[in-house]
Fold this sequence. Notes:
By secondary structure, this protein is mostly helical. It contains nine helices and no strands. Helix 6 packs across helix 9, helix 7 crosses helix 9 and helix 8 crosses helix 9.
Amino acid sequence: MGVLTTQETLQKEELDRIFDRELVPHLDALYSFAYHLTFNEHDANDLVQDTYMRAYRAIGTYQSGTNAKAWLFQILKNAFINLYRKRSKRPVHVDYEEVALVHRENEGAKAGYDDLRTEIFDNQMGDEVTNALNSLSVNFRVVVLLSDIGGFSYEEIAAILGIPVGTVRSRLFRARNLLKEKLSAYALAQGYKDYRS
C-alpha cells in the first residue's frame, strides 16, 4: 500500500468529515429499521455495521448535502436482502449453550432500549400494535416503517426500495388495511369507535 499524497490525504479528511457530519447522525433510525426487519438485536447491529462499512467504502459516490438518510436506508435494505438470501440457503443453527446462557443472564430482567423502537412501539402503541406490524410480510412492513416511522415520502421510498411510486402507494394502502383488520378489536377495547357501522 503506497503513501497518500497531500491532496489524497486532504480529500480523505474531507470525506471523513462528511461521513461523521451527514451519515453518523442516522445511526439510531437505521438501528430501529434494522431491528424491525430482523427482530433480533444481534442481526440488527450486524446490519447497521455492514451498512456503515459499505457507506464508508462508497463515500466518494455520495453527494454531500443530499438525502443521506435515504442513501443509508437503501444500503441497509440491500444488505438485509443479501443476509436474507444467504440465510435462506443454509439450515438453521441453534447453539443451545448460548441460549441457556442468555436465558440465565436475562432471567427475571426486562431488557430496555433507549431508541425509537421503545419510544414508539413499546411505550405509546403497545404490544398489540408491534405484533400486528411484525406479522406483516417484509414488503408491507418495510413500506410502513419507511413511511410512518422513517418519515420518507413516496418518492424517497420508491428510490430506497427500487420500485415504482405506484407500487409504494399500493403496498402502503394494503399494509395499512391489514393493520386495521388486525387491530380493530384492540382499538375498540381501547375506546376507539368503529366508524364502519
